[in-house]
Amino acid sequence: MKSNQITIKDIARELDISPSTVSRALKDHPDISPKTKKQVRELAEKLNYQPNSIALSLRSSKSNTIGVVIPQVVHFFFSTIISGIEDIAYAAGYSVMVAQSNESYDREVMDTKALFNNRVDGILVSMSRETTDYAHLEFLHNRGIPMVFYDRVCDSIDCSKVVVDDFDGGYRATKHLIEQGYKRIAHLAGPHSLHMFRQRLDGYKKALQEHGLPIDESLILPENASDDENVAKELTERLLNLDERPDAIFANNDIAALGAMITIKEHGLKVPSDIGIVGFSNWRFTALTEPTITTVAQPGFEMGQEAARLLIEAIEAKDDEVITSVTKVLKTELVVRGSSVK
């Protein structure tokens, strides 16, 4: 018999006692003799008996499982977030169930339904690029499922959120380029539906305004260049074909920055002497390119930890305890490398 099929009845049959006696022995019930407890525990260990987690959860109304909806598992930033979530969750006695939307709204809806049907105790959510309808998330919230948003958040739902200071990140990236002497700075923007990308764009504009540089809408390409190197290449082609091309590009993420760099080199231009580049996220490859890419680092591991702490606090709150929604804003760090220093 396989170890994962061992049940209380199997132990009872081996020891010629009742299943209820086995159950009470495993729970250290005072009515069971020390000798019987010892026999039951030794056999349970020998047979690799594991309690039925589903049955336990049905009795306790708690699964000790946290659901995580993530846009892309392969994304370096999101993989560090998962590590942070697991660090806190496992230490608190929770398992983690990860569902990847793969940047699809339909997949995100299916993922949230699947997690709900699997009776997770709470859900951590980072929305897909396509998500503009929040009915599936409102359903969870209205059903009283503890929920915390991280990175890509929904402002219309009253629950805790963990984000980075995207405005400051965009501001500092653009300010750095200005301080290096660049004056015609383009921005490869992310989807406007996501708050984080709007914040990065606002930070970019603020830096230009503070330094007396005009906001040229022809240099802001709002199409979704997020995590798509080919789209970033196409957008960079458009920028380079302008009558007055940009002398720097602030990309909404590192994949877009890489796509821009490749296209610039294909045109026989040099980075950073002809065009400077700054990305966002600090993917590992940014330290390996030639030149290396200046970027804005995000504290992914810390974000995951903070989101998990907030969710577990909500899960474990007493029925009469009021949990106040909070928004945790984590600082970014500008990592200056070769692509932006003249």
From TrEMBL:
**Keyword Transcription regulation applies:** yes
Pfam families referenced in this protein's UniProt entry, alphabetically: LacI, Peripla_BP_1
Q: Which residues form the HTH lacI-type domain?
A: 6-60
> What does the UniProt keyword field contain?
DNA-binding, Transcription, Transcription regulation
Say yes or no: keyword Mitochondrion present. Answer: no
Read off the PROSITE patterns from this record.
HTH_LACI_2
Protein's name according to its UniProt entry: LacI family transcriptional regulator
